[in-house]
């Protein structure tokens, strides 16, 4: 309460808290009174406490999410993606081009990543772009090519959905639906992906707190889809040497707060090819359950994000190094 | 180029730039070579320059948007919202509850804001919420109540759209469609709102740069809808005393870069009732074309954002003070 | 406490809290226990609670500063700067060149700002610069010129101190000592400025929270110097169109939390000449007690920060507009 | 140049650029003119280009620092700290209490870290604290205890300097002088540390860009002290689950830009004990040349930063794991 709050102001808050079933404790300090309330967070937060007369600040202490929390489910969740386990003892590497551009590009990338040991293919058919004048993806044609590649190389694949109206279509093709960073707080899209049957790769919003990210996962979980993989991909900060700042601490923090698997995207966070290997190694060393990496057979011709795509040869080197670091922390790839 | 770039690396970049029609100039410094290129930005940016061997950094100099730029259209655009002009000599005040809760609440708010001199009513029927356990809005019932209030008080209204599948419905009711801060980069939604006939209020993403915000406006404009009002509503920073940090500088910056009207939301940026009046006055003093303000007849019972809603009496006081500051900067309300 | 905290963990924390004199209340929720403690914040914070077994998070509720708080001193403090009152009914305008370069430049600026109605002169003799290759100031020669200008124009002046070893020298010349944004958390410098007799202008660190800024003021106050003026000058955010983001909300927030005067620096926050007038008007409209503005007779030749300096003519226009907005909010200049 | 810039504006800028020796190239686009200039960056930046009529923006392309750049010195610098090499093939681990509190605490920590394999001792005698009411360090008594511990355990030590007036004293005791995060832009302190003979550990300002950090190193280097170790310790972002966000990408970025060694502080960045091991492993995997870790024999009694200090047993475990990851990336400890 503010230092100028009256007895009546305090009584009013206490009464309303008790009305909704909270346990209340009032502590009168020298200059200010603090009211502690314990109860169901969602019930307590329905009321706009800072709108009450005399209230200085409402400080939530407990977490706003339930089902995705490790308090709800103590052991690690393992998600099955077309036969590949994510979240278990092995570190899963997802790789491929940022966007599907044509059959040759996709198949060259798929062959290379398969060869180097990756187990899931990435490649988008629908691309949300900052500028309306950029390439927007091949659409369903891209999904067909991805399905062909799955057949050819035995690799399940992940692709992004950006519009709830495309959900059914995309869900019918993919092994793993990706929610991109710009859509982490697109609640209709989250609800929709929570109602379809494929597992979900939920990227962190590049401006979302970890709490907001877990809330987004809760949206999906609550709709019935419990197969969720979280992906840290960098946050927006004042630093300009990198596209975004990979929040490496988010890996152990989220592993502590939630039972869901967490993977790292070293390509989009750094935004530069030469950072992909060191950030991949850092991710695995910090405890990530996997990596998702842009690989392009000819980055100079890439229609999307070529600056960060690595070449097949570099990917092969990366896999060797990741294997050694994984072993050093007691895991396999 | 990197200091270790070879002559072949430089030649390769220059050749590719010339291939796509750019004018190129190479300057060789003591330790590094700089390649300048002038041409159509969207063409030049199709190629991933940082993916080329020997390139250290690609620094875009020109703006990525066209139609919303003041270079394209020198005079101020004036947007008509159900008979009310936004962007002209008068400062427009939009006010009302954050969410429509019921008829009594909406009508009490509408009567009060009309009485105090506001000319457009706000009130949402579809609410995107961070937590899946919060109130999500009344849906179409809310739109019907808003339409009734328009009838009763002669006030056009604005409401938010959060799902492209609701666009037609919402567009059929409202006078002004609002794109909320979390959807500023929801490109399918932007494209959809660009294809419907009502004017658009585009809030800045709370983590978007001004350039990204103008790119979002470009998305809408390019689809054919040119009646766009921009709304600064605070950005995410490290400061925790306010919900977000109102970027007051964005007002004169955007007025310089674009011909579109710019208004300020002092309610959602500050997140605290006591900040609404000073931030409103600051907005008008800085050159904003309007304000959008949360007013609730009983904030303690508000289902959404009560902490920042002001009471009808406070709103009336605000209108008097805003009137004086508007006059001081040569405008009316 | 963590959900896995044992009874012994809880007891241990409670015992230690009671040992140091805190009133303690334990609330056991369904999945987690919350321990509330009320007592002297500085005593409670001596102990590293998050280092105790089973503790998940320690959330401070009360403010860490005392003397600069409005709880300690309810009425506005008015600071006397060489005969000019700051913090009273009048809005004080401080103006002049960023750095003193030579006699002609300083005197031209001083004549112009005096003529337009400013009452305090600014001009630095010691400049901290990001690059070691930039101009570092005239040193004592600069202070002598400022003292001459004070004589000539009857204007008290403010200058920055960057090194505790220069404090005595600078204090002997100036009417107001300025602590720059980069030194807001330079605690030896704060202690030193708190022990000398001249009033202090404490700029907010461009990366400091409001709480840290008030803590810095507390450092000065606690050493015995109570004549402190706070200056908001923009914070570092992800936006790149402006040098920093003026946190206009900080003005009403700080006026609420503290009794000290608050002024605004529209020159260094925006970093662009065309933003100086709108940001000045916004500052006064938001309740600032003053402004500090870079004015240079020939900005193109400025050795420091010329991009944001306005010309004498523009300053004269600014003063007229500031006067009108000040009157609109019930103040004079 | 702005789209409204006149031919005279353009000519004026070009002339001034040529006057100061820059090579100039003018490109006229459809709507805007771009002027490219190549020359000595420090000379070009002396002039405030954005203060010139018609200039829209000045975009620096080359780096502002010279001597600390890898362009200046291609091979890795190895710094000798009392006989321990930093920056070579081995990963150096510095450990010990955040602040020296008393003989027992310091010696218990020193014995433990020596035993586990650390090679440099940390412990501060002068502490800059956010609140004036917190413990400020033991002063010279602390340095004496550190010197005793060096004798006893054969470990060189690092301690912080916060005031230029203490430089001589501190320099006479320590093996490595530390510049803390809050003083990274304290230019008089940087100049002073550049003039004394001991090597320097320069922490990144928690709100500094990588470029500003390298500029700070340049300040020291330019004064004649070339033995500089850089330390990444987390930056301020919007995330609140960690004290700061460890910018892991800074490790490979700085290794690319500069020849100086880079170490990581996982204790102060995360601010939580459970994050120390994963962040240490991530640092080494990303290519850091060392770590600096808070170890305290009894964190619950720590006077400073106990929440992040690990126990001797945990440190021993950390050293084993760090050893395995170092080996995986081809290094030793």
Would you kindly provide a written description of the structure presented here, covering whatever features stand out?
Four copies of one chain form a homotetramer. Chain A is an alpha/beta fold. Chain A has two domains: 7-51, no CATH class; 79-328, TIM Barrel. Chain A has helices at 7-19, 41-46, 103-116, 140-153, 167-173, 187-195, 210-222, 250-257, 266-270, 276-285, 312-328; strands at residues 23-28, 33-38, 79-81, 84-86, 92-96, 120-122, 157-161, 176-179, 200-203, 228-232, 262-264, 290-294. In chain A, helix 3 (103-116) runs parallel beside helix 4, helix 3 packs parallel to helix 11 (312-328) and helix 10 (276-285) runs parallel beside helix 11. The termini of chain A are far apart. Chains C and D meet through helix 2 and helix 7 of C and helix 2 and helix 7 of D.
Salient structural properties:
homotetramer, 333 residues, alpha/beta, TIM Barrel, 2 domains, eight-stranded parallel β-barrel, two-stranded antiparallel ribbon, 11 helices, elongated
Question: In angstroms, what is the radius of gyration of chain A?
Answer: 23 Å
Q: Helical residue percent of chain A?
A: 25-40%
Helical element count of chain A?
A: 11
User: What is the total number of structural domains of chain A?
Assistant: 2
Order of neighbouring strands in the sheet with most strands of chain A? 5-6-7-8-9-10-11-12
CATH third-tier fold name of the largest domain in chain A: TIM Barrel
Give the SSE order of chain A as H and E letters: HEEHEEEHEHEHEHEHEHEHHEH
